[in-house]
Amino acid sequence: MHRxxxxxxxxxxxxxxxxxxxxxxxGRGRGMSQASLLRQDAVQGxxxxxxxxxxKIAADLPERAPGGGGAGGGNPRDMTDEQRQKWMEERRARTxxxxxxxxxxxxxxxxxxxxxxxxQALGAGVLMDETLAKEIGVTDDQVAKFQSAMQxxxxxxxGGGGNPDEMRTKMTAKAMEILSAEQKSKLEALxxxxxxxxKLQMRGPSGGGRPGAGT
Length: 215
Prior knowledge:
Blueprint: H1 2-15, H2 19-23, H3 34-38, H4 41-47, H5 51-60, H6 81-105, H7 108-122, H8 130-136, H9 140-158, H10 164-178, H11 181-191, E1 201-204, E2 207-211
Antiparallel strand pairs: 1-2
């Protein structure tokens, strides 16, 4: 499983380099962290946050500058492999720090719902999230299959072919094909009640928010 998680991390870094990832609602970059979701009005309303909680969140979880700084100016598409790996490590550290803050700003029930919303919004990205991949039980073989499919779509994107939204739909469908019935069941359990993710404003690695699309 440790090897699987390493591959998942590398796969995520590579996928972040595609134009389709940055342009598509599926390419959510920093917009898919718990912290960035918690800052959004639609999510705050779903969680039933109090005015005091909203004020505290605004103060303790200010929105980061596009790209979040770090190697290569924050846009993985413009980085070398080494810079991209460093960017991923910095991004992972920032996310872990923010997740701790999030846990201290909302109650257990609200945190549980926030995680469910994130799973729904990730789409095929669940296979590129180390924690979720482990929880679902993604195997090395499944990661390899998804990596192969992703590389094909990445090449198509670099060649200027394919609509980003269509690619996201295809990628999500491919992810579902790769998962076993048991894994799909685990994934559905992680989603919880349906949430309209079209209400979300997503941002890719280079900023530039836009409305999300349903999974």
